[in-house]
Design brief:
The protein is globular and about 60 Å long. Helix 3 packs across helix 4 and helix 7 packs parallel to helix 8. It contains ten helices and 13 strands. The strands form four sheets. The chain has a five-stranded mixed β-sheet with strand order 1-7-6-4-5, with helices on both faces. Strands 8-13-12-11 form a four-stranded mixed β-sheet, with helices on both faces. Strands 2-3 form a two-stranded antiparallel sheet. The model has no long low-confidence stretch (mean pLDDT 97). The protein folds into two domains: 172 residues, Thiolase/Chalcone synthase (Peroxisomal Thiolase, Chain A, domain 1); 148 residues, 3-Layer(aba) Sandwich (Peroxisomal Thiolase, Chain A, domain 1), CATH 3.40.47. The protein is α/β, with parallel strands linked by helices.
C-alpha cells in the first residue's frame, strides 16, 4: 500500500497596512537605521492598528485569500490549526476565532504554541492528520501580532518584530510530491533567555507584573543568537543528510526570518548559495509564526513543481525544527 503524503496546495498571506520603519524607531529609542540593518537585516515592519484588532483578524484575512486562490469553499475544510504566541485571548483559541470569522463552525480547530518554530510544529501536526487518512483538507495558519507584546522603549527587542499572517492548504498528494520528512526539537532550559514572564499561571496578571513590564518579550540576545545559529544550521543539515540531499539538490531554503546573520550561517552550513534563500526580513521583520508561510507567499510564483525545499526555524523555548518538502504545483 502506497503511503499517503501531505502536499502544500496553496498559500495565502496578509500584512497590515501600517509600516514602522527604522527611521521611525530612531525617534522612539536610542538606535539608528545603520545599526539595525547591519545587525539584523531589517528595514521596516508592518504593525496592526485599530480597536479590537487581534491576531485572528490577520489569520482570517490570510485564510480568506488562500480559499479564494485555491477555489475552496469554507465548508470543504476539515481542520484548521493556528500557530501563534499572541492569541486574541487565553481562550477561546485563535483558531476558533479564525473559523468563526470565516463562517466555519462545525470543524475542529486549535492553536499550537512553539514561538518562532510554531508554524513548523503546526504543519507537522497537519501532516500527521493527512497521512492518517482522517482528513483531506487542512488549513495551517502562522500568525502573530507581536506589536501587542513588545516594549517600544526597549531597543533590544522593538527593532526586531512585526505583525503578519500566512496560511497554507494541506491535501493528500496525487504523486510523489509533498512533505517528505520533518524534525522537531526543544530544550526547555532556554526559557531564561527568551520569554514573556507575566500573564501565565506562574505569574498571573497583577498591578506588580504590569509595573515591572513582565507582559512584554524579554530576550537575552547573545545566548539566543548563539543557540539559534547552531541549532537551526544543525537541524537543516541533519534533515538533508538523512534524506541523502546535498546543496545542489535544494531549490530553496525557507528559513525563519529572525536575523539575517542566522539565515546566512544556516545557508553556509547547507552549502546553499544566497540566490536559493528566501528572504523578506528586510520588509517584515520577525513575524514569529508568520515568517515561513509569508516567505512561501512572497516566493510562490518562483516555485516549480518538484522543487526541493527545506523549511527551518528556531524559537523561544527553545524550539527548533526543519521540514523537507517537494513542491506540489507550478506557478498559477
Amino acid at each position: 500500500m502506497t503511503k499517503i503524503r501531505a502536499s502544500v496546495t496553496g498559500v495565502g498571506g496578509y500584512l497590515p497596512d501600517d509600516i514602522l520603519t527604522n527611521f521611525d524607531l530612531e525617534k522612539m529609542v536610542d538606535t539608528n537605521d545603520e545599526w539595525i540593518v547591519s545587525r539584523t537585516g531589517i528595514k521596516q515592519r508592518h504593525i496592526l492598528k485599530g480597536e479590537n484588532m487581534g491576531t485572528s483578524f490577520m489569520g482570517a484575512k490570510a485564510v480568506e485569500q488562500l480559499l479564494s486562490k485555491t477555489n475552496t469553499s469554507p465548508e470543504e475544510i476539515d481542520l484548521l490549526i493556528c500557530a501563534t504566541v499572541t492569541p486574541d485571548y487565553q481562550f477561546p483559541s485563535c483558531a476558533n476565532l479564525i473559523c468563526s470569522q470565516l463562517g466555519i463552525n462545525t470543524i475542529g480547530s486549535f492553536d499550537v504554541s512553539a514561538a518562532c518554530s510554531g508554524f513548523l510544529y503546526a504543519i507537522s501536526t497537519g501532516v500527521a492528520f493527512i497521512e492518517s487518512g482522517r482528513y483531506k483538507k487542512i488549513v495551517v495558519v502562522g500568525a502573530d501580532k507581536m506589536s501587542s507584546i513588545i516594549d517600544y522603549t526597549d531597543r533590544t527587542t522593538c527593532v526586531l518584530f512585526g505583525d503578519g499572517a500566512g496560511a497554507v492548504m494541506l491535501e493528500p498528494s496525487t504523486d510523489d510530491n509533498g512533505i517528505v520528512d520533518f524534525i522537531l526539537n526543544s530544550d526547555g532550559s532556554g526559557d531564561k533567555y527568551l520569554y514573556m514572564k507575566g500573564g501565565g499561571s506562574r505569574y498571573p496578571s497583577t498591578e506588580e507584573t504590569v509595573k515591572n513590564k513582565w507582559h512584554y518579550v524579554f530576550q537575552d540576545g547573545p545566548p539566543v543568537f548563539k543557540f539559534a545559529v547552531t541549532r537551526m544550521a544543525d537541524v537543516s543539515a541533519e534533515i538533508m543528510e538523512r534524506n541523502n540531499l546535498v546543496g545542489d539538490d535544494i531549490a530553496w531554503l525557507v528559513p525563519h526570518q529572525a536575523n539575517k546573520r542566522i539565515i546566512d550561517a544556516t545557508a553556509r552550513r547547507m552549502n546553499i548559495s544566497d540566490d536559493k534563500v528566501m528572504l523578506n526580513i528586510q520588509k517584515y521583520g520577525n513575524t514569529t509564526a508568520g515568517t515561513i508561510p509569508l516567505c512561501l507567499y512572497d516566493y510562490e510564483n518562483q516555485l516549480k513543481k518538484g522543487d526541493n525545499l527545506i523549511l527551518a526555524s528556531f524559537g523561544g523555548g527553545f524550539t527548533w525544527g526543519a521540514v523537507y518538502l517537494k513542491w506540489a504545483y507550478d506557478p498559477k
